[in-house]
Design brief:
It is built from five helices and eight strands, in the order βββαααβββαββα. The protein is an alpha+beta fold. A hairpin with a 4-residue loop joins β5 and β6. α3 packs parallel to α5 and α4 packs across α5. The radius of gyration is 20 Å and the shape is elongated. The N and C termini lie far apart (about 50 Å).
Length: about 200
């Protein structure tokens, strides 16, 4: 059985480690990545494969070769941006900042569990979600309330993303403690204003 790990969102520091899979010490056969490799400055995605898969590909007869070249594969500009981005991530300690600020963000958001409409707070690093519910016991989703909170946050300068009844947060890896606290303060104020 092959293990394929998708690191398109979780890769390159988003969860407080270089890759989300490192939280569980996984060793996938195939890993897909994108977004974080260039911090979104230029389009680039790819896959990484295990030695076992590479050996099978290398040993295949020419008529069975895996043709995987595309017009923009390995584009020099995108690869240059990725290399510079990785250098910046390392030099500025942004993966560690993601871990530390992520703990602060999740800790702050967890205080919102005191509200009767917050069913759960979850996350790793700078990837967190706050679940909005009609009933804390049954955790019945409240899509309308989540959308209302989303719109009120946006009006106060806080951009989140509502995914169904979950308000998702994925701030920049360079976020400061003051900015994390501002996220929690704005969201807490909005939830307080709409709670019964």
């Amino acid at each position: 059985m092959l293990l394929i790990v998708d690191e398109v969102i979780c890769g390159f520091g988003r969860t407080g480690l270089w890759f989300g899979q490192h939280h569980w010490e996984l060793r996938p056969d195939i890993m897909s990545f994108a977004k974080g490799v260039t911090s979104g400055y230029l389009q680039l995605g790819g896959i990484q494969i295990s030695d076992a898969i590479r050996e099978v590909i290398d040993a295949a007869p020419p008529e069975e070769a895996w043709m995987h070249g595309y017009t923009y594969s390995g584009h020099a500009a995108a690869c240059a941006v990725a290399l510079k981005n990785l250098e910046i991530l390392e030099r500025e300690g942004l993966v560690e900042n993601s871990r530390v600020m992520g703990e602060r963000l999740k800790g702050g958001l967890s205080k919102l569990l005191d509200f009767n409409i917050v069913g759960d707070v979850r996350g790793r690093g700078l990837l967190c979600g706050v679940e909005i519910v009609k009933d804390k016991t049954t955790r019945e989703p409240d899509l309308a309330k989540a959308l209302e909170i989303y719109n009120l946050c946006l009006a106060r300068g806080l951009r989140t993303r509502n995914v169904g009844n979950v308000l998702a947060f994925s701030p920049p890896l360079s976020i400061t403690a003051e900015e994390v606290d501002l996220i929690v303060d704005i969201l807490g104020g909005v939830i307080d204003s709409v709670s019964e």
